[in-house]
Amino acid sequence: MSSSLKLLVICMSFAPAATVSAATQSPLTTENVKTTIDQAINNFEATKLDQWAFQISRYENEEGDETSSIERFNPQQADAARWQLLALNNRSPTLDEQIDFQQRKQDTETSISLRLSELIQTDSLVVVSEDKAYIRASFDVYLERLGADASKHLQGTLAFVKDGEFIEQIEITNTDSFSPMFGATIDELELDLAFVKINQSVLTQRIGLKMQGSFALFTEIDEVSSDVYSDYQYLGPCATKLRC
After folding, report:
1. Does 98 fall in a domain?
2. Burial class (CB in 10 A: 0-12, 13-18, 19+), 31
3. How confident is the model at residue 179 (pLDDT cuts 50, 70, 90)?
4. Of 71, 92, 190, 235, which one has the fewest beta carbons inside 10 Å?
């Protein structure tokens, strides 16, 4: 599968984000759910990348070609050393592989990003179910990189935690085949995003992708990937107190 196609379909760089304190624990209604989700998105996107260290375990299977890596991000290091490659395909990486990894991170870290406010079209939110703990809602998806024609074949659902006032999970699936770029057809797409709240911060926990289709008629697209985030450490002001 071409790397450019993959970037068009999913360009993810979800980072930890600070949240405001909980406002009200009153049950949400259809009328105010859009405002509530908007606030949750704003809280998540109020991120300070220079205040968190974390680890990512990545796995990818493209047409049977499996790769894996363990990466560590530490914002207190110099720019070139913020990202460290700890393991590659279940072995220690060579020096050349570490240097290449850091260069690629410098080239892509700031340019490849997907915001929840871009992903979730809050005007289209519809409450699917509600109980004491969760609100589950569906929404239309728009991805600028895919364009309007491809985006209209995507549908999303989310789970909002009432007590913590944050989005815990997002699932995106396609309702029909679509073409993200010339010569490519995606027949099946499943994107699963999970988030966790640690103290008063909402952090990315998992990004999972399943994708099947074809490229240039003769090349099969069959990909499964997952990024699992762990070992979060707050390094911002008042780090010993977690928050000022």
Report:
1. yes
2. exposed
3. confident
4. 92
Residue 83 predicted with pLDDT over 60: yes
Structural domain contains residue 235: no
**4-42 per-position pLDDT tens digit:** 445 445 455 555 444 333 334 455 555 688 999 999 999
How far, CA to CA in Å, does 127 sit from each of 28, 30, 154? 10, 6, 18
| C-alpha angle 53-111-46 in degrees, rounded to nearest 5 | 50
For 88, the token pair is 């590659």
Per-residue pLDDT, 110: 45
pLDDT at 142: 85
Is 113 part of any domain? yes
Secondary structure (DSSP) of 22-55: P---SPP-TTTHHHHHHHHHHHHH---GGGEEEE
Whether the pLDDT of residue 164 is over 80: the answer is yes
Q: Give which of 198, 122, 179 is closest to 156, Cα–Cα.
A: 122
Q: How far is CA 137 from CA 74, 115, 150, in A?
A: 35, 18, 22
- 3-class SS of residue 157: strand
Q: What is d(CA 140, CA 170) in angstroms, rounded to the nearest whole number?
A: 12
Please give the residue range of the domain that contains residue 87.
3-18+29-230
Q: Is the dihedral of CA 125, 33, 157, 185 positive or negative?
A: positive
The domain tally of the chain equals 1
- Render pLDDT for 181-201 as a digit per residue (tens, 0 to 9): 777 899 999 999 999 998 888
Q: Which whole-number Å values give the CA distances from 234 to 40, 41, 113, 180, 240, in the listed order?
A: 20, 21, 22, 37, 9
